[in-house]
Design a protein that fits this description.
The chain has 332 residues and is of the alpha/beta class. It is built from 15 helices and 6 strands. Bound molecules: zinc ion.
Length: 332
């Protein structure tokens, strides 16, 4: 039986002040609770809770019959106060850490519902604890057992262009055992576009098929290089994903476009089965879609080519406008 920690409503309220929690019991009137130094208490509670959590055994001594006061904690999210305070939020839609954490909670619930993984936390060995930090490096999600660290690029966060929904998608849908980077990144980018309140990184709010079409028109060789590994388990995906900026962008845009094509045409349920496939991935296309991998790829390519065309000049002015709007000097 999966381990769950039951804590009282009062502890949860204090703990949730700065952090965020999911629970399946109703808590009333917690906005009315008056506590001084709520954030400090929340951190203390979090630390205390973390140490208690480490000492928990499978059984616990909490009474089982007082449902009004007992809450099942399924995950926690936090951004430490000093991290929040280190950011200049003048150009951000988030004015308080609570607003930000609420947004994260919304992404967790909307994304997990859409990908049919509402009990996503059960894939972690213990209650997942998501800690969000801001650094001047690439946005990335790292999982160590039940501890999940999301680093968001600080400048992007300050200018409302951080891939928050994208990284949350990686928490909900972990990479499959047989890594398929294009399905992982394609799905996360698709989910960001669908649920995110800001433009996706790499497509910058442009339709992924339209941008893929632009790459095909101007950079056919690079397009074909990346196209050949999309939707496979080919190890070169990692090379393109982590490689030089240009191929990296084509990799993300094509992955996004492929996931969008599969999900919009055949539905999320089959896409999730494809993503989680444990036998031959190439054969799985036929099993799920009744079409060979090559047929699927060729249909997808036709969708790209029939998308509206965009010139490089139009692309450049779109980026310029977008970064102006977010008050961010490109390349700063
Ligand atoms: Zn990603």
């Amino acid at each position: 039986m999966k381990k769950r920690v039951l804590i009282t409503a009062l502890s949860l309220i204090l703990y949730c002040t700065l952090t965020s929690c999911s629970f399946n019991a109703h808590v009333e009137d917690y906005d009315d609770l008056e506590v001084d130094n709520k954030e400090d208490i929340a951190i203390d509670q979090a630390e205390e809770f973390a140490s208690q959590e480490d000492n928990e055994s499978e059984e616990n001594d909490y009474p089982e019959n007082s449902e009004d006061e007992m809450i099942t904690l399924t995950y926690t999210v936090k951004m430490l106060e000093n991290v929040w305070e280190s950011a200049n939020m003048e150009n951000s839609r988030f004015q308080t850490s609570e607003e930000f954490i609420n947004q994260v909670d919304y992404y967790i619930s909307a994304i997990s519902e859409f990908v049919l993984k509402e009990n996503w936390y059960e894939q972690y060995p213990d209650i997942p604890s998501i800690e969000i930090s801001l650094q001047n490096s690439v946005s990335i999600t790292t999982v160590r057992r039940n501890r999940i660290y999301i680093n968001l690029n600080k400048l992007a966060f300050e200018h409302d262009l951080a891939p928050i929904a994208h990284e949350i998608a990686h928490v909900i849908v972990k990479s499959s055992l047989y890594r398929t980077e294009s399905l992982d990144e394609g799905l996360a980018s698709y989910l960001h576009e669908r649920f995110g309140d800001n433009p996706t990184v790499h497509t910058w709010g442009i339709d992924a098929h339209v941008l893929a079409n632009m790459f095909f028109s101007y950079y056919e060789e690079e397009y074909n290089t990346v196209f050949s590994v999309i939707g496979t388990r080919d190890r070169r995906q990692e090379e393109y994903m982590l490689g030089e900026q240009f191929l990296r962008q084509i990799f993300y845009v094509l992955s996004h476009s492929f996931a969008k094509y599969l999900i919009d045409t055949y539905g999320i349920e089959d896409f999730m089965k494809l993503h989680d496939a444990t036998n031959s991935l190439i054969d799985e296309y036929y099993v799920l879609y009744g079409k060979s991998f090559d047929e699927i790829k060729s249909e997808w390519h036709s969708v790209i080519l029939s998308s509206p065309s965009m010139s490089l000049e139009e692309y450049d002015s779109h980026l310029e406008e977008l970064f102006d709007k977010h008050n961010w000097q490109w390349g700063s």
